[in-house]
Amino acid sequence: MTPDPRLGLMRGDIAGSRWPPLFSSRAASLAALLHQLDASQWLPADAIAARQRGQLGMVADHFARHSPRFARRLAEAGLDAAALARPDGLAALPLLTRRMVQSTSEPIHIDQVLPGHQPVRTVNTSGSTGEPVIVRRTAVNQLHWLAMTMRYHLWAEPDLTGRLAAIRANMVDCGEDKDWGVPANLFFDTGPGLRIDIRTDIRAQLEMLQRFRPSSVMIYPSNLAALIDEADARGVDLGFVARWRTLGETLSPDLIERVEGREQGRVFDCYSSEEMGYLALQCPSGSGLYHVMAETVIVEIVDEAGRACAPGERGRVLVTDLHNHVTPMIRYDIRDHAEAGGACPCGRGLPTMRRILGRERNMIVKPDGSRHWPLTGYKQFREIAPIRQYQFRQHEIDRIEVRLVTERPLTGDEEAALVAHLHWKLQHPFRIALTYFEGTLPVGRNGKFEEFLSLL
């Protein structure tokens, strides 16, 4: 495949060197990495897998020599570091749980840092699962994170000179800026940017977007749903947004239909985690498949027996970090579920996932012990009653609280119809408790929101 022509327009930071551009320090490594990623995505799938195994072998050997804890993990499985570099070798290693990462009796990280991997920084996950973890990541991890951020821009944006807005948690220096910020502004003359803190009132968010008129918006799915509701209520046309770049939460088919079905722009999703970085991006070809960021991670989707899922099958997501040399995040059970994908018609050799299903805590549990992903249907809700936002919280095995924000108080008939609809969709006569909120529903400590949350 031909290289992305935009990479040939990169701007260097060495005075007097416009073409070819020259870069200083870390910018040079990042620029080189971007060119390599542009080529590696087109490698055949077996070539990508072979290079992943070679990199994993180096990481495993490092930890086998410097981490007694990892060495024991290998020995207990009857493996050595070299075994992980062989086909199917990784699958023989028992998974790494969040509780194992959390253990304080023997920290999982090591103090030996390879040359060029400093500085090391600490990442604290949000703890929204009730099991917060602390992971140390290196400067190499940060370099790959910047490169994958740039890949996200290149895949999602046909024109880097467009206007980009970002609505996220933990934003600093909110407001308008002349460009998109790092890493895009290191190499390109981008369009202007706008940063909005997720805690900003949804009405104020809508007004800021109207003034700025971005062509693309990076946003959590729940925030996008709230924006659409507010825009509908106020008769605001969001047609100036061509791309909604969702991240941070599970993207539901309902939301995709609400946006793209009404020609409100295209939805382009990103799958990532705080402790592991970028995991997958939706294919820019429009296939809908998610390409795994195979240059930085190995992603396995396994069934209950630990076997690899075939395309179309759903299973647990295990992630291996190929470049973290201070915390052995190898076969880490991230507690997400996904549907395995097949070869993408775009021609990229990167592995695929068809759909990200969500966290374990997003599965409903029935009194008979069975579990499944709850499909409730926003569209049907709106046909029953003027519901603007909802959330399900399973407090007991037979009781679910339904939190609602409505345009007006519901009638008794509407409440009864809603409960009947939920019994049908959830396939069980749960005790349903309706709780009403004004404005918007509260989000988690990380600024994110989940439509269904099991508290069992």
What topology emerges from the helices and strands here?
Elements: H1 25-40, H2 45-66, H3 68-76, H4 81-84, H5 98-102, E1 121-124, E2 134-137, H6 139-156, E3 164-168, E4 175-177, H7 184-187, E5 193-197, H8 202-212, E6 216-219, H9 221-234, E7 243-246, H10 253-260, E8 266-273, E9 277-282, E10 290-292, E11 297-302, E12 314-321, E13 332-340, E14 352-359, E15 364-365, E16 371-372, H11 378-384, E17 387-396, E18 399-406, H12 412-426, E19 431-436, E20 452-454
Parallel strand pairs: 3-5, 3-6, 6-7, 7-8, 17-20, 18-19
Antiparallel strand pairs: 1-2, 4-5, 8-9, 9-10, 10-14, 11-12, 12-13, 13-14, 15-16, 17-18
Helix pairs in contact: 1-6, 2-3, 8-9
Domain AMP-dependent synthetase/ligase: 119-319
InterPro entries: AMP-dep_synth/lig_dom, ANL_N_sf, CapK_Type1_Caps_Biosynth
Protein name: AMP-dependent synthetase/ligase domain-containing protein
